[in-house]
Amino acid sequence: MVIMSLPGIMNSVNEKEANTCAIILSKAALTEWNGFDPAGYRAYAHFKNSDQLGEELMTSYCREIAEEYQLPMPKMNSKYFAYASKSFDFALMAGVIALVLIGGYIVIQSIFRISINDKIQSYGQLRTIGATPKQIKRIVKNEGRKLGSIGILIGTVLGVCGGFLLFSKGFNAVSYVATVILTLISSWIMVSVSIRKPVKIAAGISPIEAVHFTPAQKDIRSRKKNIKLNPVSMGIANFRRDRKKTVAIVASLSLGGIILLVVSSIVLLRSPEALARQFFPDGDYKIYLDSEMTEEKVMAAGNPLNEELKQEILSIDGVTDIIPSRQSLHATYKTEIHQAGGMCDMLTDQNYAVVEAALTEGTMPTDSRSIVIDYNVLKQNEDMGVGSTVEISLGEEQPSVSVTISGLYAPAKVYSGHGRMHLDGATLFAPEALFHELHPEITSFDYSWSIVNDPKKTDYVGAELKNIVASHSNIALDEINTVIEYEEMTNSFAFGSMEVLSWLVFLFGVINLINTTLSNQIARKQENSILRSIGLTQKQLCKMNICEGLCYALFATLATLIVGLPASIFACRKMSVGAFAGNVVPYQFPVLEMGLFILVLFGMELILSVWTIRRQKKQSLIEQMRAME
User: Fold this and answer.
1) pLDDT tens sequence across 108-155
2) Contacts of 514 (CB under 8 A, 6+ apart)
3) What is the pTM assigned to this prediction?
């Protein structure tokens, strides 16, 4: 026993990950430790600009270093390169940008329509003193460009500052400059296109028309005769009065709802618990090999996953069974040109059918000299296709044999690996005979056990398993909660932003609706006051406005369900096939999210309608009738 001082305590980051350091010693203390072996070091090689180097180039560098210093070839995992080489989804970003631009277009055009309506008589007066339509266009364009420039500048500065604060480590001056330039150009185009229609309205009106201009009456449709007038019918008539404006408002409101419905449905489908359960089909815990030595050395010296350990685990109250889930060794496989590495799992009666169902090309092995391999390996190693011959060795400094690749399989349909990202998952599968041929000295190739436990005693079982793992060497504990936390983080990153976007688009629709409500209030002051003067009560006027507002909410809800429900079912079906190994999970309607959306939509309409009436109460009928003169 050695007594040492404790100079400090570290923050435990990623404490549930394997291979994290619990204790850090100085080199002097390590060399004085009883039983210190200078050959027991594990070195990690870090490449500069690794994101710009491929697996083949880094492997060749490692091979050159190993040969120069007479070292064994380092272990490399192809799953890391598959994970690190995931490309950015530009199609998704393009869709987000398009939605934001459409929403901005609708809002900007609505605001300028109201501005034009308010100033139309002023433009008419300018026409009477000699202003030409071209000059009116220039006035309105200059106003739009000035306001647009201020808004674009403020938005760009806030965006850059927000991006720097959120992702300061990833700040790249060149990328930010390019992004800012593209943002400025696209925003300027959006503003220019948005104000074209209002500009034409302002320039196309004559001085006489400007004096008596009433925007809401411009496109009144022919109405049926003998219609029964009441607050409800009059509200519906107002809703149908300007069909273009009605369609624009309903579309802007429902667009956010459609996005929210699709995204929320996918989030429900991609339940972190359901995704994690695919890696833990039997229980909430796994015991697997985790050692500084290679797997074949640990197994040859006496696999710690033995009968004694099994009985110790089975003695825990709540553990009902132990199922060997993987028999595996690290493999190195190469051709004359390429070399790669990863975990090689043994084909057994338990996993044969699953691997066969995951085949994308070729067939299952028919003899001991055939293997199936992850099809992602083919992306970095073009000469490792079906029918190719490769040299394979199971372990470091082990003899190799020639085998044939009989098939390729999709790893997403074969759930293996431990930890958050399952980087020790299987890269290839080989028959049991090949394992015994290359390692006749190993009696048990068990790499991982699934612990079947009573769900009511999960916490107690987990605590006892941690104690057992701590008292044994070369093994580690994998928990379902680790995978659930990772999937939750992935979901929040991937879909949280989309949910925010859907509410943002919905906000555009709300702003458009508020603008329309204000525009209608201004345009209908005189009309409403005339109705009041011939007997329409304040209560009936309130009902009429509420009915009109509820029509917007009702049709936006119907449009959301009619378009969004089939889209969400289709998206969930496609996502289910990819996430759950080809199985179609029953669709779940996001009741909470859509209930909140509908509640906000109808509540907002009621508030706007009541607020409009209360504003009109502040003016007398005479003042309202003169307001438009």
Assistant:
1) 776 777 667 667 667 777 777 777 888 888 888 888 888 888 888 888
2) 608
3) 0.60
Angle, to 10 degrees, between the axis of helix 243-269 and the axis of helix 90-128?
160
Query: Quick check: 340 and 425 in contact, CB under 8 A?
Result: no
| d(C-alpha 26, C-alpha 40), whole Å | 16
Look up residue 535 and give its DSSP letter: T
Longest dimension (CA), the chain: 104
Residue type, 410: A
Give one word for 313, left, alpha or beta, with left for phi > 0 and alpha for psi -120 to 50.
alpha
* CA dihedral over 177, 179, 183, 186, signed as positive or negative: positive
H, E, C per residue of 46-91: CCCCHHHCCHHHHHHHHHHHHHHCCCCCCCCCHHHHHHHCCCCCHH
SS3 529: helix
Nearest residue to 548 via CA among 245, 238, 244, 241: 238
Q: How far apart are the first and last CA of the chain?
A: 99
The residues that bridge with 324 in the sheet, in sequence order, are 449
Q: What is the DSSP letter of 34?
A: T
CB 341 within 8 A of CB 62: no
Q: Which of 489, 514, 490 is nearest to 612 (CA)?
A: 514
Residue carrying the six token digits 């449709």: 221
Q: What is the mean pLDDT of the chain?
A: 77
Distance from C-alpha of 113 to C-alpha of 202, rounded to nearest angstrom: 9
Q: Are 394 and 344 in contact (CB under 8 A)?
A: yes
* Residue 261 tokens, joined: 């419905």
CA distance 565 to 572: 10
